[in-house]
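Fold it.
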Amino acid sequence: MPQQHETYYGLPEQVAFCSKCVYSNQRPTSAVEFKHRPDSKKTTLHFDEEGVCDACRTAELKDEIDWGGREKELLKLLDRHRRDDGQYDCIVPGSGGKDSFYAAHVLKYKYGMHPLTVTWPPIMYTEYGHSNFRNWVEKGGFDNISFNQNGRVMKLLTRLSIENLFHPFQTFIIGQKNIAPKVAVKYGIPLIFYGENEAEWGNPIADNISSLRDQAFYTMKSLDEIYLGGVSIKELVERYDIPLADLMAYLPVHREELEKSRIEVHYLGYYLKWTPQESYYYAVEHSNFKARPFRTEGTFNKYASIDDKADDLNYYTYFIKFGIGRTTEDASQEIRNKHLTREEGCALVKRFDGEFPERYFNELMDHIGMTRERFMELCDQFRSPHLWAKMDGEWKLRHTVNNDGVDDR
């Protein structure tokens, strides 16, 4: 009988891998964690009785969908909201990356909508990421609201997110998710479009959200239910001396403010067949979108999630906590889109998964006020014992998709 080890984050005790892609059952189904602790309960990717993950099953369904019919649904939705009085009729949140560019451009130039683009800027822009953002707005031809956060608060919340949750993007994602609903309420724009469906990555299917009021993430009843960087709002105000006004940018719209609204959130990937690589080619053609001039550390591609210098670190912390690196995410997506075989994906995982993000690491640590030594201590603190074993002074995964982990032998 295999030895039992303590598990963190509510992860399954037994590690298993999808028989079609390279995901493991350790993958959490939500990227946003409000009160995440090492002992908290967490929902993970579901595998069916044939050992296939939800994300792969969703990809299979895409081949059976009547996309012509879905586009007709889209046209009806757009016609219901389309305006001819010079006012914006939809919001497209994004950074000017391949997916947000594609979504905004298609809505405006193919379907005749008048989108307002909305941006929650990165923690630290990369040079090419900022260039792509400018190309989105200028060459793409879009009005844009970019919310530039209080830098002092953003640095503190990013550091707290790492120290308490080992999740550099926790507060960033909260702000990013909430900026579009806030702008929609403020300007009376009733339609928000995101790009790819959450189900593409194994998250719960969000085919067609009927009302913003029904989505708990976008609303709050009171400040007591919100944590930023694993810290309550009260503690941030009292212990860290942050005025409440400086935290409001991160918080959801109050539920009472949405009671009068009829704002809808939709995923363009529900109506149009979504392929990330095709979005990249589209962005290159229509805005001179630039990929990274070098391979992204931790994976094999150059064009996805490249606008923030903290991106690579975020994926690395994900690897430490769940044993799933950036290559696993990217290869699984490419396998589902039939651009890679599973065997090729396994080889890429073996080569690149868990590679340390050295390029921007020191600059980012200096930016948020953390030492390399402290970060390395946190790496050890947040490793779940059922995923990791220390062999000859070096941490090794107990189980891998290539069946060469410490406990696979």
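The domain at 67-271 is CATH 3.40.50 (Rossmann fold).
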